Amino acid sequence: MSQEELLQLTNLLFPKALPTPQQLEEQYPPRNLPEGARVTRYAPSPTGHMHLGNLFSAFISERVAHTTGGVFFVRIEDTDKKREIEDGVSAILQDLASFGFQVDEGVTGVGEETGIYGPFHQRQREEIYHVYARELTLQGLAYPCFCTADELSALRERQEAQKLTPGYYGEFAACRNLTLDEIKAKLDAGLPYVLRLRSPGKEEGKVFFDDMIKGKIEMPENTQDVVLLKSDGIPTYHFAHVVDDHLMRTTHVVRGDEWIASAPIHLQLFKLLGFKPPKYAHIAPLMKEDNGGKRKLSKRKDLEAAVSYYFEQGYPAGSVKEYLLTLANSNFEEWRKVNGDAPQDSFAFNLKKMSSSGALVDLVKFNDVSKNVISRLSAEAVAKAVTDWAGEYDKDFHQKLTRDEEFTKGIFAIDRGGNKPRKDLACWRDAVDYTAYFFDAPTEYDLPENISAADAAAILERYVADYDHDVDKDGWFNGLKAICPDLGYSPDVKAYKKDPDAFKGHVGDVSTVVRLAITGRRNTPDLYAIMQLLGKDECVKRIQNAMAFFRQ
Ligand code: GLU
Q1: Considering the domain boundaries, does residue 48 fall inside one?
Q2: Which ligand 1 atom is the nearest neighbour of the CA of 254?
Q3: From atom 5 of ligand 1, which residue's Cα is the shortest distance away?
Q4: pTM check: above 0.70
Q5: Taking Cα atoms as reference points, which of 459, 463, 464, 373 lies closest to residue 421?
Q6: Is residue 31 part of a domain?
Q7: Band of the pLDDT at 134, cuts 50, 70, 90?
């Protein structure tokens, strides 16, 4: 088409007055950020709650921005009405907030946007996309295509039968060379159309780019006349990505590696529009071990793929993020060893240290990481988090926890702090069992084989007779030792080991019996601290109950 015809075509397709690209450049100027500061985004479709993979890529984007003094923004990619679900945006924002992500710009609440680079919902940017679609049409780089779905599938079948590259390109792009009159006639007839790119790509052409994670990539140039605007005037992902990430001044696009295949389209569009492309960081999907092999973590098969799983079990957000950091940067664990209590944010996250193949999600490892994270929290923080969790997921437990808040805090203070904190809890749900005997006296006692019920009863009878509650820990332990000789037990473990036949057992066995009476368990945190927290009356009552049980 001649220049004149292109102008006519452009005016036919875009009759409404639009801003010029120059005006948009001025409205969305380059950001004034310090050297090295990176601008990243999380760009979800509003399809509901996040999956672990979404969280991983959002977290990496966020880290890239915030470890460089840059900007992390959220853009809602709502161009596909069919995939959208009600409250999809609020679910995503809730998840982001639950993980404590600081969103600097973009969609920060339902119906709430921050920053001058918006709007940040793609459906509200229609006019902006049309500015560039208009520009490409005017330059002969875009054209309307009236092919129907049936015609396109017939084309694909023909290409497949002839073993040709499928798609709408070159000689197969039937609408590429329609004349202005032909187009006018179709428009007059009210035929629906999409706007396609007239790809200048050559079959033998190559594109190169340096992916921040995957390294140097060489791919065939794009030759497909991809759709830019769908028949309702809404852009495809490809077109929206290029326009938005240019105008929002994104410096680093962190996204799933399923998009690598489309990168040649994107790079071509950046070039044709005269935009500088961002750096890409394509993340491999999270993986899972399955039957000795590896497969992608699956939304459908794997409970742990949904972030709701972590909330329901009561894993602290800090644990999930800590684990994702171990997956993201192999040097994170080393760093953590040296910087025990340092906040996660002080770790110098580095995109270049990400593995180019998919990280393996391992719940056993995750639980270990979470136990460590929880062991570093204060008693107050644990008590509050467990109580909040129970409020939502276990009403019975919540009642117990809120009966006496000091008591609850006391439970979680036992064996906390110090160099070797216990690591009993991986998630708040574990606290139900962990705290059970604090709230309810035991009713069953499983004695070790070497202690008879009669001996256990004798130990408890003797112990309760002299029980002194108001002593320090040494005094308490001395109390246990003091009753040993009369009962035939050795107060000293070494002495017992030298001559086991001379005793029924040693002070350790005596304390096991007391522990069982108080807690119903053989293994607990510091028994002295437990007894102090329960109080004298409760301890005496429990010892008497157990005594009665052993005498039955
Ligand atoms: N909306 C796209 C998706 O959900 C985002 C990809 C991107 O980050 O560019 O896959």
Answers
A1: no
A2: 8
A3: 43
A4: yes
A5: 373
A6: no
A7: very high
Note the pLDDT tens digit of each residue in 85-131: 888 899 999 999 999 999 999 999 988 999 999 999 999 999 999 99
Q: Looking at the domain assignment, is residue 343 inside a domain?
A: no
Ligand 1 atom with least separation from CA of 259: 6
Residues 17 and 154 in one domain: yes
> Which tens digits make up the pLDDT trace of 162-199?
999 999 999 999 999 999 999 999 999 999 999 999 99
Exposed e or buried b per residue across 362-399, where buried means at least 16 C-beta atoms within 10 angstroms of its C-beta: beeebbebbbbbbbebebeebbbbbbebbeebbeebbe
**Separation CA 351–CA 65 (nearest Å):** 11
Do 500 and 392 have their domain in common? no
Last residue of a domain, one of 263, 283, 303: 283
What six digits make up the tokens of 437? 């005997």
Same-domain pairing of 534 and 387: no
Looking at the fold, whether 429 and 457 belong to one and the same domain comes out as: no
Rounded Cα distance, 229 and 211, in Å: 27
Calculate how far, in angstroms, residue 251's C-alpha sits from the geometric centre of ligand 1.
16
Give whole-number Cα distances, 410 to 80, 266, 404, 529, in Å.
52, 58, 10, 9
Best mutation site among 56, 237, 244 for ligand 1, i.e. most ligand atoms within 8 A of its Cβ?
A: 237
What is the tally of structural domains in the chain?
3
Residue 17: pLDDT over 90: yes
* Cα 44 to middle of ligand 1, angstroms: 6
Using the predicted structure, report yes or no on whether residue 421 has a pLDDT greater than 90.
Answer: no
Pocket of ligand 1 (CB under 6 A): 43-45, 77, 241, 253, 255
- Which of 238, 171, 170 shows the shortest CA–CA distance to 199? 170
Q: Give the confidence band of 418 by pLDDT, cuts at 50, 70, 90.
A: confident
Residue 8 lies in a domain: yes
Q: Which domain holds residue 233?
A: 3-21+125-283
Please report, in angstroms and rounded to a whole number, the separation of the first and last CA atoms in the chain. Answer: 102
CA separation, residue 382 to residues 110, 314, 387, 406 (Å): 31, 11, 8, 13
Q: Give the Cα-Cα-Cα angle 367, 368, 370 (nearest 5 degrees).
A: 65
